[in-house]
Amino acid sequence: MNQRRKQRLFAVSSIIILVGAAITIMLVSLSDNVDAFYTPSEIVEGKDRNGEKPTIGQRLRIGGMVVPGSVSRDIHSLAVSFDLVDIGPAVTVQFQGILPDLFREGQGIVANGTLKNATLILAHEVLAKHDEEYMPPELAEKMKGVTHIPPAQGTY
Amino acid sequence: MWKWINSFAQPEKAYGACNFFMPFFVVVLLVCLPLGTVWGLVFAPTDYQQFDVYRIIYIHVPSSSLSLTAYMAMATAAFVGVVWQWRSAFTTMLALAPIGAVVCFISLFTGAVWGKPTWGTYWIWDARLTSQLILLFLYLGVIALYVSFDDKQQGAKASAIMAMVGIINIPIIKYSVEWWNTLHQPATISKLAKPSMPADMAIPLVIAMIGMAGYIGTVTLIRMKNELIKRDAHRPWVLQVLDAEQASGKPFIRPVWWAVAAVLFTIGAFFMVQQGVKFDSLAAFIDMGGRGFFVWLSFVVSFVALFILLVLSVLDRKTIISETRKQKTRVERIMRARAAKAAKKEAVANSS
């Protein structure tokens, strides 16, 4: 490799490495509060790291599993309330609107909303989170013992 | 070895290489893209959670995954162009940018359409979706930067720097689902791990991915040839090659390749049909378990976008070639006029 090529290689690599390092540092420092994400137990007991609890009225995002049997719907409107849990205590989420196809008891859910009191969240958006696994219904029934009804016939 | 590789820095050699590789990509495109799509839509089993709306995966995952691969290829070409100053490398980069942009758009669009029924929202600012959107802006930035320069060599250099710096976004997209709490689930198919889906679902997905790669390869070669002709329009090899292509009268892709494609497609279709149709009736197929709107919107928009890009690239070639020929006749006319003028002058000088 001749001298000029070496120089260009050096210049280009150093630009890429420098910008890369800058972005990495930014992302690492941001990663703690890239969004206000809490699990139900973090809302009740505070985050592991610093015991920080969300304040009443704070906008936050919560992710957890819908507690089976906790879903209660209002017959006259779209209002629904359900409990979310991870490994510790549960919190209640209230929501008014159409739930996604994948909303089921036992399903992982992400909700955006505001904290009304220590264990109650008023959500303006409820999103279903699913895993990366796909399988035919027959196989799922055999392996996981779940029978699911198609979304079009869903009760939610 | 290095000398041989370096010879492809010459535009005429690169043009020849494009012609050499073209049939392979065309065959892969023609066999795998329709096969993977039809297999995924009709012959793959439905999913236990999402049911038929999950079939969007057969266009979403190929386009998402290959929009990253295409970016890496583009950045590599930019790197070679800047460091070794290959004349042909920037043409590869410029050819890939619009293709990557379209594929990245398809990934975002199908993702949004899929997200609405399953997650409950078209868009959410989570790390995976945001970083993929940045990828689209990087592709558009590379194109815009090149177009905005009057001096095309300077423009190519500037967009090459942008393409190289943007490579940092690739690992961010790839690992965003592991580094942050994202709504987007981790990868279903990855090279290192066992796929999280049974073979009868995964095989059509892999075929569709290969087909998408074939599409990207084919269109890249078409656009790269256009770019090579455009940049070297004034150099003699261009018209020599174009004239030779015209004079030989051979079809662009030899019949043997069409035969290869037909045979491979038939073999693939044979295995596909053995899986059995997964719908009771045509109405059920169109309805897709009540989610037909989302599934068909994804596929129709994606294929229309892919088709438009392909047609534009082919039409581009026609325009560029006719421009080149026009330019040549213009130069010849000017030369003739000059010669005539000089002869006249000489005649006048002699007579006096």
Quick recap:
The complex is a heterodimer of chains A (156) and B (352). With 156 residues, chain A is an alpha+beta fold. Chain A has helices at residues 3-30, 40-45, 137-144, and strands at 37-38, 59-66, 72-73, 79-85, 91-96, 108-117, 120-129.
Task: Explain the overall architecture.
The complex is a heterodimer of chains A (156) and B (352). Chain A has 156 residues and is of the alpha+beta class. Chain A is 27% helix and 29% strand. In chain A, helix 2 links the parallel strand 1 and strand 2. The model of chain A has no long low-confidence stretch (mean pLDDT 80). With 352 residues, chain B is mainly α. Chain B contains twelve helices and no strands. In chain B, helix 2 runs parallel beside helix 10, helix 3 crosses helix 6 and helix 8 runs parallel beside helix 12. Chain B is elongated and about 100 Å long. At the A-B interface, helix 1, strand 7 and helix 3 of A face helix 3 and helix 6 of B.
Task: Provide the fold topology.
The complex is a heterodimer of chains A (156) and B (352).
Chain A: H1 3-30, E1 37-38, H2 40-45, E2 59-66, E3 72-73, E4 79-85, E5 91-96, E6 108-117, E7 120-129, H3 137-144
Parallel strand pairs in A: 1-2, 5-7
Antiparallel strand pairs in A: 2-4, 2-6, 3-4, 4-5, 6-7
Chain B: H1 2-6, H2 11-43, H3 57-83, H4 89-118, H5 127-148, H6 152-165, H7 169-179, H8 199-231, H9 236-248, H10 255-274, H11 282-287, H12 292-351
